[in-house]
Every structure is written in C-alpha cells, then in structure tokens.
## 1
Amino acid sequence: MKKIALFTSGGDAPGMNACIRSVVRSAIYLDLEVYGIKYGYDGMIRGEISKMESYSVSNIVQTGGTILKSARSEDFRTKEGREKAYKNLKKHGIEGLVAIGGDGTFTGANLFYDEFGIPVVGAPGTIDNDLYGSDYTIGFDTAVNTALDAIDKIRDTAASHDRVFFIEVMGRHSGYIAIQSGIGGGAEMVMVPETSTTIDDVIKKLREGRDNKKTSSIIVVAEGDEQGSALQIAERVKLETPKMDIRVTSLGHIQRGGGPTAFDRILASRLGLAAVEGLMNGQKNVMVGVIDNKITYTNLKLAISKSKPLNEELIRLTKILSI
Ligand code: F6P
C-alpha cells in the first residue's frame, strides 16, 4: 500500500483534529502518501481530495471541530453516488481509507467495502460513545466534561432558587453522556433510553428528595429517553406537582465543540496510528478501538450492528448516590 486517504464524517467530535494529525503524520512516517477528503462522503463524490503534508496538520491537536469538515451525505446512500466516489479514489490511486466518524459513517464504509473492496479502517469519532468495539470514542470525554461544567453552573442557580432542573444532554440513542455527567454532577436522577423510568418514578424521587430536606434537584435526561425530551417530561411532571418550581435546559451543540481533553487527544492520537498500521498490516473492513486500554480491531459489520450496553455499575451508583 502506497497511498491512503482519510476523512471525517457525521457529527463532528472534539479530538477529530488530533486523530487527523495522527493519521497524517503516522502515514508519512511509514512512507505512505496521504490524502485528505473534505466534507466526508460528499467530498469523495465531488472529488474534493488533496494531498496532505506533515505541516498540513500543525497546530490542530488542541482544537475542536474538524479541519477536513464534515457532512451527513444523502448522495452516498445511492449506488450512483458511491460509484462516483470510487472513481474519484481510483483517479488518485487511493488504496486504503481511514474513516473517522460514528455508526452512520461506518455503515457507509461497510457498504462501500462490500461493493468495491477498498480496504477501510474506521476510527470511532463521536461524542455519543455508542460504538461496540471500543470502550471510548473520540470526543466523548470532552462532551461529558462540557456537560458537567454546565450542570455545575446550573446547580448554583438551582440551589439559590430552590428549583428543580431538567437538563437534556445529547447521545442520540445512547445514555452514556447522561450517566457520566449525571454521576459527576451529582444528579438526583438520570433518565436514559437503556432503562425505563416512568413519570411517576420521577415525581416519587422529587418528593422523596423534598422529604429528605433537599431544596433543589437536578435531573439529567438523555435526548433519546423513552419518555421524550426534557421539556416534555418537565411539562408532565409540572401537571402533577404544580407547586414545584421547575426549569428546563437543553445543552445542545455546545457539547460538540471546544478543545479536546487530554484523554481525547491521547485516545485520538493512539487510534490514528493504529488505523494506519491496521491498513498496512492488511486489515480491510474494521474499526480500531481500545478495550481495557489495549488497541483492538473489530469487524465493521459487528461494530455497527451490536449495541454497547451501559455499565450496570454506573446505573446502580447513580441510584445509591442520589438518595
Ligand atoms: O451523533 C452526535 C450527535 O451530536 C448526537 O448526540 C445528536 O443526536 C446528533 O449528533 C445531532 O445531530 P445534528 O448535528 O445533525 O443536529
């Protein structure tokens, strides 16, 4: 293998730039030519492919976002789009791909490999931490810390006004960000899609807290919770407890931005090198990850089809610490 290309796709995540830097520098170190594709699959279809040098990735290890830009491509869902993308890669003599992204990115990569046989190694870059085959994804730790910072600030005002706050965090169908930021932020309750919590459970918890002389409460809600959004949940709780002073905050895309934490920079750097080495060692359709702090390669089909359960210990811990 002499020429590889890399791209970022799907929702951006802090640490993607550190991963781009690692892929580019590792490839050059290992005597490969490396090309950057802008705007993910869309850029592959449009032919936005250009050679990268060591200096192309200077001064980015500490920055959020992705210098290669990102997109969620509709055209790549069509056979015609994927054929165009393949022709563009061939035109540049690209023999292997590093795809940095989440499950949507890897679903596309897996299909592309099945159709055209171009080796691809995925590096998990998503704040959601929802990929089977890696204990952590790039960006998750930063997102949790951002959410935590916001929860701490909200707690100050919640305590001053004796209020109940419902705080919605991202994570799509996963409760990882919610459970981690909930434990770190001392939430009274965490609502995640992986466990079912009824509105009656929420009301019971708030009343117990009040009986235990708690004057304010924080409930962290994962955006994918089965009871709906934080706003919908708060409205239903309010109907039953009109005397409680309730507010809602949705943290939104703030969780996707900002400079990556040390953890994410190091994870991204390790995964970038391992992705390039994987391609050189003949890996073809895999996601690189870390399990028990060791580099692992998991077949992409498995990475996208198997779900990653929430750690039961964390769920139990939340219940115990919120009495
Ligand atoms: O997958 C990352 C993520 O931030 C999810 O947590 C969230 O549901 C989604 O992307 C938001 O997507 P968009 O930026 O397209 O609104």
Note: The chain has a mean pLDDT of 98.
## 2
Amino acid sequence: MLGPAILMGQSKHRENCLSLGLDCDRIPRHIAIIMDGNGRWAKERNESRVFGHIHGVNAVRSSVEAALELGVRHLTLYAFSTENWSRPAEEVNALMDLLVTTLVKEVESLGDKGVRLRTIGDLSALPIDCQEQLRLAEDGTKNLQSLDLILALNYSSKWELVEAIKQLMKSDIDPKDLTADDVARNLSTNQIPDPELMIRTSGEHRISNFMLWQLSYAELYFTPTLWPDFSKEHFYESVRDFQNRDRRFGGIMDANRTMSKKG
Ligand code: IPE
Ligand code: IPE
Ligand code: MG
C-alpha cells in the first residue's frame, strides 16, 4: 500500500512531466552523472580551477531539484575518483573543503526535501572532517525516501571490483556456482538498481573508471555543456533524449517499438 505522501508526490511528478513533455512512466529510476568540465569553465573566465568547482555546486543543486521534480529515485554523482588524488594538493584540499562546507550548508534543506544522502567509494582515505560530516549526513537522512543522492567519493570501478573479488574469495561460494548476482551483491551499489541513464558533461566521451559493471545497459548521454552550466533544462533534455531511445537489451524491437517475446 502506498502512503498518501507518496501518492501526492506521484501526482506532482506526473504534472511536472506533463508540463515538460516527458512521459512520467518512463523516467529513469537511476541517473548517474560524471560531472566534468569545472576546470575548463574556470579557465574560460581566467579563474582558478577551484572557482570552477565552487560554481559546480550550483549544478549539483539544479540536478537534485530536477530529479526530485521528475520522480527519479536514485541520482549518483561522480564527485571524486581514485585517480583524482593525482591532482595538485591545493586543488584536492579545496575539493575536500568544498565537500564539507556544502554538506554543512545543504544537509538540512536536502532533508526537508526528503533526500537521503548515501556514498560509494573508499571514504577511509578522506580527511577526518569529511568522513565525519558524511556520516552525520548519511545517518540524519537515512529514513528519507524521495530521492537517494549517492555521492561517489574516492570511487573507481576497478577499486570496487577488486573489493568485490576479495569478498567473494573469502566467502564460501563455490567458484563454479558464482553468478552475476553474487558479484553485484558485493559491489558498493548492492542495494541500488543499475543506472538507466548516464550523463557526462564537458564533451568528453569516456567512462573514466565509473560504474563499469552497473552501466552495462545504461543509455549514455554526452553533452558539451560544462558542469557549472548544467541546468535543470539540460537535465530534462537528457531525460527527453533517453525517452527517445530504443532499449533492446540484446533482443529485437517489433514495428510497434515493443520488445518481442521469446517463442
Ligand atoms: C570535474 O571537473 C570535477 C572533478 C573531477 C572533481 P574537472 O576538474 O575534471 O574539470 P576539467 O575536466 O579539468 O575541465
Ligand atoms: C572524472 O572526471 C571523475 C569525476 C568527475 C569525479 P576526470 O576529469 O577526472 O576524468 P578524465 O581524467 O578526464 O578522464
Ligand atoms: Mg575533468
């Protein structure tokens, strides 16, 4: 049984989708974003890269709002990769500081909107104050259900797969019985459905070690827009594009654009 708040939310999503020309029944359940282009955005303005990251927070806010409006259930943002440690210490420190100040500033309003904050990645390598703020935000929002905002921090897909393999090697599963579900259960996304749509900003056409397993059948959307310029309209546009894709999952589509059934 769905509660009245959920039903009210659903009718609001329907209204929003209708006004944007989107099909409310085909909103991706999970959207993952590689937020890229902050440095180039700053460079275009003769500013430091950190200036770009600071402005990138506006795009995070817009994406969260747009996801809430459309009824997306999970939004994953790739915020810091295991490879990003190779950047100058000044930039890395500024990114960590920005994470803490943004969390402190925004967590209450996220909570008011029903946003649950979650993380994937090896948090143990982050500065202690980051870990602490993340823990507080995760604990404080753990019962909220409008949207899961999943921050990928010190995350990479290869790291995650190696961790999963270590767990599986310690488990009592007989290798000959190992299934894809066993692997998925040992990934950091084990309670989260795979993304149906992956967006990357800034005109780069690569995955950069992000959710290699989970993106197996995701629709990929690349836009030249630099992350700080990514607005709610850009977000809606990516969903509109997604709704025009034929998702075949290895099958074939009949003339009515419905999937053919076996037999
Ligand atoms: C994305 O923007 C933010 C992070 C990776 C943390 P970049 O900092 O990669 O910006 P560009 O790609 O150099 O323009
Ligand atoms: C990917 O962006 C990582 C994040 C958005 C956190 P990068 O800017 O680090 O990726 P590359 O180096 O261009 O592949
Ligand atoms: Mg980049």
Note: The longest helix spans residues 89-112.
## 3
Amino acid sequence: MISGLLNPWIRDLVPYSSARSEFSGSADVLLDANESWEGGNSGVNRYPDPLCRALRKEIESVMGLPYDMTAIGNGSDEIIDMLIRMFCAPGRDSVMIERPTYGTYSVFARTSDVSVVDIPLTPDLDLDEEAVLGGIEEHRPKIVFICTPNNPTGRVYPLEAVLRIADANPGITAVDEAYADFAADFRSAVPAIMDNPRIVVMRTLSKAYAAAGARIGILVASPEIQGVFMKAKPPYNVSLLAQEAGMRALQDAPRVRERIAETRRRREELSSFLSSLPFVRCVFPSEANFILIRVTDAASLYSYLLGKGIVVRNRSSDPMLGSTLRITIGSEEETGKLKEALDGWQG
Ligand code: PMP
C-alpha cells in the first residue's frame, strides 16, 4: 500500500550495511569499524548505534510512542527532508503546506526540486479544511504537511479535521506535533496511524524536553514507513553525544512536567499583559511556547527591543501576518525584562 507511494529508487534501495548494523551483540575486541582503540568500547571513539535503540526504548517508556513505530532524525528537520526524498520525485511531484507555517517544509521541498502548493489559512489563521481538500483534489501532492500547534500562530487544529484531510489524501499526511507538549488536552494523530498508515507524525526533544542543541527529532510512522526511513537515512545520523543527551532529557521527567506547567502559566500571564498594551492590536491565542502578536509597528518595536538586548521574531514578511512579532516564552527573568522593555515603549 505504502510501497506504491514511495519513490521507486527508495523502495528498491539496497541499504548501506554499517559495521554497527551487521554486528550488534556484545564482544570485547571491536576491530570491525576502523575506529580508534583509544577511549575504550563505549566512548566517542566509537560509532553510535545507527538504530538509536536505547533512546527509542526510553521514548517508548516516557512518551508512549511504540518502539517499532519510531525512528530518530538529526532534528525533525532531517525527518522533513527525508520524507520529501522518500516520497517526492524531483521535477515532478509537489507537497502541500497551509501558510503561514514552519518554513523548512518549503525549503526542503525546493532543495529537492519539488514544488510547493500553498493553501492560505482562513483570515483568522485557522485551517481552511475545504480549501485543503480542494487543493488535494486538484494538485495531488505527495505529502500534505500539517503543523499543529502551528508555528508561528500557536493554533491547534481539530484532530477531526486533520484526520478527514488525511483520509481524503491519497498521499502522505505528515503531522508536525513539535509543540504538542505545551497544548492543553492535546489529541495526537499518532493513534490514527493504525487505521491510516499514510499518516506520519513528527515530535521533537527540542521544545518541551529542552534539548534543541542535541538535534533529536522523532518520526512516528507505520512499521513499514519506519523501516524505509531506517534504510534510507544516513547510517550514523544521530551522534553518540546526541543520543546520550536525549536519554538524559527524557529521564528528567518530573522537571519536564514542571517546565511545561511553568511555560503554560507564563504564556497565559504574558498574553494578558500583552493584551493590556495600547500598541498591541491582537494577541493570537496560543497553545505553544510562543505568542504571536499584531502591533501597530512591528519593525520599530523589533528594533527597539533589539536595542534593549531582546531578540524576538518579526513575522511581518508573510502577507497574512502584517505587523506581527512572535515571542518565545522565556524564563521568569527573561519575561520580566521583556515586560519592562515593553512598558517603556512609546509606540
Ligand atoms: N517543526 C516545527 C513546527 C518547528 O517550529 C521546528 C523548530 N522551530 C521544528 C519542527 C524543528 O525541530 P527540530 O529542532 O527537531 O529540528
């Protein structure tokens, strides 16, 4: 079923067989991978586990994502790139995005010479289900990316709408749930993979798990797609240091929960503060660890904040996001500095 959607050169690929994938038992003398002997048998002198087994077991126990349905990317960004390379033929196929959304879906499509069908959100920045369904009918994209909660709006789309799109879509529906941990009562698309194996989900340790520097993205997919990803990815795509850092991030579960609760609390406080400012025209309700605001003059406010040593993101270049800034929820201290600076703005 999935094999008909794959690029034939990926479907028929004979994967590179690495030393660590040919032998994964235990032995004292490792002379199979042209590594250095100095540093022993488990240091950075050795290649990492290409299958990230320990990390995936930890992900299963902490995040509840089944082991045989997960694969790890060098960030979700690598997963996005890989999905496009697995399913889209250069110069012929397209992917669909709902704009404005996270920028790398389009960039990775273009680096593979894959075109981008871009469906605008509704004027109040919600998913335009009818337009997406019409676009699928018309353009037959190989992958429909859906980002929920969406970056940069912070909006969660109803799971029912996401699943209706996925069911109508004969191609792959890739649901990016990078910010899911920050959303209240979030309903993931992961359980729906059982009924519809054309759904794949992306999660990451870069946000709620505070490990962006480790570059750990998680693909959750049917075992069939997971298997193809494993064979098509670079053999050692997740470094030993990254796998270890990912393990540590996951093992700190109480702190992860506290951090999420703190982030949500601060997000609500900051939202009401922002709403009270005369130059803030709109605070878009957010379920993520950032808030999008529309202000009277985004460019001047951006430069003013920069002058105070505070960097936010100016999102105004998108036609639907005129005069908007996206602000990440920082620490208590960072948020305090931001509020103080905003209080002093005479916009
Ligand atoms: N998806 C979304 C929606 C994002 O906003 C980001 C990063 N800003 C990513 C994926 C990339 O995540 P990672 O760090 O896992 O590559």
Note: The radius of gyration is 22 Å.
